[in-house]
């Protein structure tokens, strides 16, 4: 396959970025999108040019590092992570636009790399989970109803990639925050900090400068792990419950 790539190049957060056009040839349909970018970078290095900076780690759809907007879609045309997107999703001769996440809370570090430490600070704001010290309790000493376990696991699948923020027209982090809150608050182990967790994490999310949620649903559509939109409603219920108890 021969492709035309229009890639966002930006030296740092303070520099003015622009799209640069490159031609790559010999791309196999079995390559992942990141392997295609590796091929581009090999070509640039051999030509004495600066390679394109992009984030990646596991390349197995687990870590969430591979954050790219491809032809206007977070992670590209398939509902998966960029590293699991293969070039068979494109046609020979295609022009592909590649950009970083676009959100004020995710400043550009270089080229396609953005700083997503705002997510880390939201998680840190949630604090810890109380746990008794001493001898480890029996594994089944704290029973968890199957619906609650399924609900927690569904939300724990969030990998923090930021596709929800990139896809949202408001740059909202509500889907991410709700996933992190819900998977802890529904379990008995998370009950002691249930109220402070939701209040502190939502407050931190607002402080980071993410936009408000208007329930357009783009976040859930783009999520590679399928975190459902009702997750936000569940978090809002938790927040209202905690707010009323604090007011008392």
Between the first and last Cα atoms, what is the distance in angstroms?
Answer: 65 Å
Could you spell the SSE succession in H and E letters? EEHEEEEEHHHHHHH
Briefly note the structural class of the backbone.
Answer: alpha+beta
The number of E-state strands comes to 7
Shape: elongated
Largest sheet: 5 strands, mixed
Using only CA atoms, what is the Rg?
Answer: 21 Å
Low-confidence stretches: none
**Mean pLDDT reading:** 93
Order of the strands making up the biggest sheet: 2-1-5-3-4
Strand content: 5-15%
Query: What is the tally of helical segments?
Result: 8
Helix percentage range: 25-40%
Account of the 3D structure:
The protein has 248 residues and is of the alpha+beta class. 35% of the residues lie in helices and 11% in strands. The chain contains eight helices and seven strands, in the order ββαβββββααααααα. The protein has helices at residues 33-46, 117-125, 146-156, 163-167, 174-185, 194-207, 218-222, 230-247, and strands spanning 3-9, 18-24, 69-70, 73-74, 95-99, 108-110, 113-114. The strands form two sheets. The protein has a five-stranded mixed β-sheet. Strands 6-7 form a two-stranded antiparallel sheet. α5 (174-185) packs antiparallel against α6 and α5 packs across α8. The longest helix has 18 residues, at 230-247.
Short description:
The protein is an alpha+beta fold and 248 residues long. It has helices spanning 33-46, 117-125, 146-156, 163-167, 174-185, 194-207, 218-222, 230-247; strands spanning 3-9, 18-24, 69-70, 73-74, 95-99, 108-110, 113-114.
